[in-house]
Amino acid sequence: MNRFERVNILLTGAGSGIGRATAVRLVAEGGTVLAVDLSEDGLRRTVEAATAEPGAAGRIVPHVADVSDERAVIDAISAAVGELGGIDVLINVAGIHRTTPIDRLTVSDMQRLFTVNAVGTALFCREALPHLPDDTGVIVNVASSSATHGNPYMSAYSASKGAVLAFSLCLASEVAHRGIRVVPVSPGAVATPLTGADVLPPELDASYYQRIRSPRGVADPEQIAGVLAFAASRDGGYLTGAEVRVDGGSHT
Any idea where the Ketoreductase domain is (predicted)? Predict the structure, then answer.
């Protein structure tokens, strides 16, 4: 099923985890993808993974950029328009994670989390919108179930993802007159390098996280990628301005 045949997609955070799985899924379904990430090596591996899929019908173009750098975002949009011929879909996956007790939270922590997670997402939306087609354009922003659930030691991260969620809901209303859909997707626990590298300090109580495990277990990136692909496709054509939670039932 080539749901993304003749569809041009700009995907951020494509160098690993959910972003890589999404790139592989989109290319497999015929999409033409400009894959953006800060890691050149990560993008190389993503391109290898996407093109190694049997029957992959799409195309992938890597583009190294820092999503927190306004000039780099503008250049990435220009690259997408030039390399792909336009932008039909924007999927913002890029983000960072921090587990920090409140007594250790620094201004630098807050600034970095908000700059990458919230500002980077907003910049890509701002710059992509003039290029998205009316009636069929789509923006999918990855938030987090932490945006609306109080997890300890994650106040700054959760706040930054809460900003992504609120921004997405407001933007959906703002661009509704153009027929452009905006869908925030909030994953729960996912096995990715982003979360794996963020080790909980040994002196902190980790029992909370053991108690809130999802009945479905920790998600694989591919499970989240499937939802992102649905939201971005014609199959999700009636979906906009509503959060899609993909947490395996952990907060029900």
Answer: 7-178
Domains of the chain and CATH, by start: 8-221+231-246 (3.40.50.720)
Q: Which residue has the tokens 């040994």?
A: 202
**Among 38, 224, 26, which residue's Cα sits nearest to residue 141?**
224
Distance, CA of 188 to CA of 250 (rounded, Å): 8
Instruction: Report how far residue 178's alpha carbon sits from residue 180's, in angstroms, rounded to the nearest whole number.
Output: 5
pLDDT tens string, the chain, 252 residues long: the values are 799 999 999 999 999 999 999 999 999 999 999 999 999 999 999 999 999 988 888 999 999 999 999 999 999 999 999 999 999 999 999 999 988 899 999 999 999 999 999 999 999 999 999 999 999 999 999 999 988 988 888 999 999 999 999 999 999 999 999 999 999 999 988 876 655 555 566 666 655 555 556 667 677 999 999 999 999 999 999 999 999 999 887 776
153 is catalytic: no
- Rg of the chain on CA atoms, in Å: 17
- Asked whether the whole model's pTM tops 0.85, one would answer yes
Kindly state the tokens that stand for 60: 């992938």
